[in-house]
């Protein structure tokens, strides 16, 4: 009966108490572990929060520093860009001055060459390689040298302008990139944990191959600044050189122009003096010609005047030769007639002065023609030098551009 009252599936009360104790102990242990875990979690959350805030604060500070650094280099690049643009604009003005100076050389060179060409029309003894021609040749040489120098300087200026524009392009590109980078970093600095539309970007952690080091970044802009400074300094030196060249070449051309003009004035004076002397000689020759013509006329008259007496004397002798017989006497009359005829004949024969006078007259005529031709030569030279050349040279204007 006792076996029937005992159910083999039922546990002993002691086991029940033991099981309850174990449940309590297990629960309390679990609770303790959970409480520790909660405490550790809060500690970890607090620690992560502080670390996150500190890291984010450090990133914000570095981002602000980076923005200031970009602003600094952007300002440097802006300054260099302004300087290089300013120098390029000034160089364009200097280029215009060089072009006007080159244009200004054309007329003086053409005039010098025309003067040389005109003076080839001189004739006779006046076609001489005189001081005027020497100075004209030197003037043409000086102007051609100035043109060559100005052309080389203009090429150098064009090349410097090209280099300046190349550096301006580099600065523009660098500034454009700096502006973009600053805009991006300004946007990044404006972001907060509460900013809408912030997202997870897993791919953002990947470093692409086109990243450069901070040193390379600084070197890149620094090189652009240094190159801009170098081209600016080159531009300053070139401007000083151009000023010097324009001043010196204008002075050289002006000095040589005055040398030519002085040579022309001196030469015109010499030719006028020579012409005046020739005209004086011509007047003298013409006076002498008139005197010689009068002399020849007097000689001819004197000869003509002797024809009557000689005819009378000879007629008398002829008549007395017919005296008869003893009357044909060589008396004093006959002797005197003979002497008269001989004397008159001798005097007539001595009139070779007439031939000599006529020879001298021919010589005076030749001399007159020669002097008149030489005066025409001088008049031609004066027309060329004083009218064609000197009047044309009055239009020469040499300026310091």
Automatic annotation (TrEMBL):
Keywords recorded for this protein, A-Z? Cell projection, Cilium, Coiled coil, Cytoplasm, Cytoskeleton, Flagellum
A Gene Ontology biological process in which this protein takes part is: cilium assembly
Question: What do the Gene Ontology cellular component annotations say?
Answer: axoneme; microtubule cytoskeleton; nucleus
Q: State the coiled-coil residue ranges.
A: 140-167, 354-381
InterPro entries recorded for this chain? Tektin-like, Tektins
Q: Which subcellular locations apply to this protein?
A: Cytoplasm, Cytoskeleton, Cilium axoneme; Cytoplasm, Cytoskeleton, Flagellum axoneme
| Self-association state and partner proteins as the record states | Microtubule inner protein component of sperm flagellar doublet microtubules.
State its role: Microtubule inner protein (MIP) part of the dynein-decorated doublet microtubules (DMTs) in cilia and flagellar axoneme. Forms filamentous polymers in the walls of ciliary and flagellar microtubules.
The family note in this entry says: Belongs to the tektin family.
Protein's name in the database: Tektin
């Amino acid at each position: 009966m006792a076996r029937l009252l005992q159910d083999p599936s039922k546990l002993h009360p002691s086991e029940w108490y033991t099981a309850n104790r174990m449940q309590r102990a297990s629960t309390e242990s679990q609770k303790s572990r959970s409480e520790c875990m909660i405490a550790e979690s809060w500690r970890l959350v607090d620690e992560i929060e502080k670390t996150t805030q500190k890291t984010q604060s450090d990133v914000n500070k570095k981002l602000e520093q980076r923005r200031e650094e970009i602003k600094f280099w952007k300002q440097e690049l802006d300054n260099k860009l302004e300087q290089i643009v300013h120098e390029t604009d000034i160089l364009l003005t200097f280029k215009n001055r060089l072009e006007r100076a080159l244009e200004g050389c054309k007329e003086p060179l053409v005039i010098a060459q025309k003067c040389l060409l005109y003076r080839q029309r001189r004739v006779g003894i006046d076609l001489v390689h005189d001081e005027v021609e020497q100075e004209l040749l030197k003037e043409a040489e000086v102007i051609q040298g100035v043109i060559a120098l100005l052309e080389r300087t203009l090429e150098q200026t064009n090349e410097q302008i090209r280099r300046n524009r190349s550096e301006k392009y580099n600065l523009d590109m660098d500034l454009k990139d700096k502006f973009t980078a600053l805009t991006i970093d300004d946007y990044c600095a404006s972001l907060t944990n509460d900013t809408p539309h912030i997202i997870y970007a897993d791919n953002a952690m990947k470093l692409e191959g086109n990243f450069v080091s901070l040193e390379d970044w600084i070197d890149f802009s620094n090189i652009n600044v240094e190159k801009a400074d170098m081209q600016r300094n080159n531009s300053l030196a070139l401007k000083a050189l151009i000023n010097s060249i324009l001043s010196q070449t204008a002075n050289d051309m002006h000095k040589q122009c005055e040398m030519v003009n002085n040579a022309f004035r001196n030469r015109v004076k010499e030719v006028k003096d020579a012409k005046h002397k020739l005209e004086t000689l011509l007047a003298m020759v013409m006076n002498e010609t008139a005197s010689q013509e009068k002399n020849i006329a007097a000689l001819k008259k004197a000869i003509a005047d002797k024809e009557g007496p000689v005819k009378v004397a000879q007629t008398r002798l002829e008549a007395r030769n017919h005296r008869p017989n003893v009357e044909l006497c060589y008396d004093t009359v006959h002797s005197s007639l003979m002497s008269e005829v001989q004397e008159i004949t001798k005097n007539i024969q001595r009139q070779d002065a007439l031939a000599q006078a006529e020879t001298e007259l021919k010589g005076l005529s030749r001399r007159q023609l020669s002097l008149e031709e030489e005066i025409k030569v001088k008049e031609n030279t004066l027309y060329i030098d004083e009218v064609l050349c000197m009047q044309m040279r009055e239009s020469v204007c040499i300026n310091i551009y």
